[in-house]
Amino acid sequence: MKNEKKEKKRKRDHLILCVVFVLSVALIAAAIIWCVLRVGQDGTESAQSKVTEVSEPLPFAIPGFARIDEVELQPVGGQLQVTAVGRFTGPYVEDGTDEEVTDVLALIVENTGESWVEYAELTMGCGGETARFVLSSLPSGSSALVMEANRMTYTAGTDYRLSEKAKIAELTSAVMDFSEEFMLYPDDGVINVENISGKDHAESVSVYYKNYRYGLYYGGICYRARFEDGIAAGELAQSVQTHYSNADSVIMYMSYEK
Questions:
Q1: What does the alpha-carbon distance between residue 16 and residue 128 come to, in Å, rounded to a whole number?
Q2: In this structure, are residues 111 and 140 in contact, taking their beta carbons and an 8 Å threshold?
Q3: Largest CA distance in the chain
Q4: Buried b / exposed e across 27-39, counting CB within 10 Å, b at 16+?
Q5: Beta bridge partners of 170
Q6: Would you say 73 and 85 are in contact if contact means Cβ atoms under 8 Å apart?
Q7: Strand partners, 111
Q8: What is the pTM of this model?
């Protein structure tokens, strides 16, 4: 009788140990699965966060411009900020030829300062080469699409790094309000200037303009209509300007001896 009781007790104790062992294994397995799922979820969230950061829309919808997301954006010094680095396919405006190009490096640059920028030169390391971006005449608070000065093209896998230093000159010599001395009559392909000052302007007179499309200045270039021999009192002078259009062009300022 005693032996039977002992045997039953032994079997019960063995069963309890088995149950405890199985529960322990199950708990350990559940803990491992939870950790794996948690890490996977964190990784997914991190990846999603990165995708969201990369996928933020461009500041401007510019046909032919595709952002290069792997380039780190940083202040380039002074009052200019690069808001996007990309490659551009379309008319190359920086040299006035408007020739079609493919995948030329380009920047979207914003003037965050309170004064106009007359001239700026930004650089970007491209592996063992240096890309140059030249910008002329950018008002405070505005942006411009600037194409690489030598038509350097994008190459996948290249390490692109914006330089933190830039050459920047503020606009100081321009005549912003010329309404008492000249009247401008621009039209598609031409700029007409009338001297209403009552006196001869025998020195050179220039009118500066840029093209404005898609919410920003289109190109770093600033075009100039120059009247080298001056404009006599009461004279209406004309300059042929193939890049001027009533739809897209903006008169920036004039320059002449006052």
A1: 72
A2: yes
A3: 136
A4: eeeeeeeeeeeee
A5: 117
A6: yes
A7: 80
A8: 0.78
| Alpha helix stretches (DSSP H) within the chain | 2-54
For residues 165 and 174, what is the distance between their CA atoms, to the nearest angstrom? 26
Reported as type and span, the H/E element at residue 222 is none
Nearest to 227 by CA among 197, 181, 196, 194: 194
Q: Mind listing the pLDDT tens digit for each residue in 33-81? A: 544 445 444 444 443 433 334 446 787 999 999 999 989 887 787 899 9
pLDDT recorded at residue 44: 42
pLDDT confidence of residue 19: 43
pLDDT at residue 36, rounded to an integer? 42
In the chain, DSSP assigns E strands to 65-67, 80-92, 99-111, 117-126, 129-138, 143-147, 160-170, 182-187, 190-195, 205-213, 216-218, 223-227, 236-240, 249-255
Rg, the chain, Cα only: 34
Question: Across the chain, what does the average pLDDT equal?
Answer: 85
Q: To 5 degrees, how large is the angle CA 168–CA 172–CA 176?
A: 125
CA distances, 51 to each of 48, 54, 55, 69, 215 (Å): 5, 5, 6, 10, 26
Which amino acid is residue 255, in one-letter code? S
pLDDT lower than 50: segments of the chain? 1-3, 5-6, 15, 17-20, 22-23, 25, 34-37, 39-55
Q: Name the DSSP letter for residue 213.
A: E
Burial of residue 49 (CB within 10 Å: 0-12, 13-18, 19+) is exposed
Closest Cα to residue 191, out of 231, 145, 233, 232? 231
How many residues are given for the chain? 258
